[in-house]
Amino acid sequence: MLQKTPFYFLRHGQTDWNLEHRCQGQTDVPLNATGIGQAGDAKARLTDIPIATICCSPLGRARQTAEIVNEALNCRFVVIDGLQECRFGEAEGKLITHETYHKLIRSAGTTGGEIFEDFVERAIAGLNQAIVEPGPVLVVAHGGIFNALQFHVGLDYDGDIKNCVPVRFEPPTNKNNVWKMISV
Predict the structure, then answer these.
(1) Potential cystine with 56: which of 10, 86, 132, 140 (Cβ 3.0-4.6 Å)?
(2) SS3 assignment for 102-167
(3) How do beta strands 137-141 and 7-11 pair?
(4) Which pTM value belongs to this model?
(5) What are the structural domains of the chain?
(6) Environment class of residue 25 by beta-carbon count within 10 Å: exposed (0-12), middle (13-18) or buried (19+)?
């Protein structure tokens, strides 16, 4: 169960594999020039938000994005292994479409990757580890972590989160147990 604590989320900046529509998974692909610029834009958008801790995936694309954002925030910085992207096994590096990605993340166990339920459990544990840090917390991670979160909390959101577009997650405040995602 995800701790009912508000937090911010930022998907890493663009990589060449994002641009080419290649499955990245845990392959450590660096940010490209566009991704570095996106991280700079996110830094500007987050400057006036009183973030106390940035928690990020250890993969380079997320860590570099977090480091760029932290140039303005200058706050506590924590790397959390559980925030790594889903391991897709043999599918990593292969071309994918939006539709095949959503099928792949739920069947990665068949390609030598993580079983979806295990990935969701790991992702939620990583998010829980992050959001108990001094807050407000900014989590810098991956599209798969966003999808695991979306699945776990039943978020009514159709689509992926774009690279470097910060959002805030608000826990349920009523009986229907619905999380809210708010653009920053």
Answers:
(1) 140
(2) HHHHHHHHHHCCCCHHHHHHHHHHHHHHHHCCCCCEEEEECHHHHHHHHHHHCCCCCCCCCCCCCE
(3) parallel
(4) 0.96
(5) 7-183 (3.40.50.1240)
(6) buried
Q: Which single residue is written with the structure tokens 């995936």?
A: 57
DSSP state of 30: P
Active site residue 85: yes
Instruction: Report residue 22 as tokens.
Output: 């290649």
Place of tokens 């106390």: 52
Strands 137-141 and 76-79 come out as: unpaired
CB 15 within 8 A of CB 30: yes
- 12 included as an active-site residue: yes
Dihedral over alpha carbons 60, 63, 68, 70 (to 10 degrees): -170
- CB-CB contact of 132 with 58 (8 Å): no
Given a cut of 70, the residues of the chain with pLDDT beneath it are 157-159
Residue 98: C-alpha distances to residues 143, 161, 168 (Å): 12, 12, 24
Q: What does the alpha-carbon distance between residue 16 and residue 34 come to, in Å, rounded to a whole number?
A: 9
Residues 6+ apart with CB under 8 A from 100: none
CB atoms < 10 A from the CB of 19, how many? 12
Residue with tokens 């909390």: 153
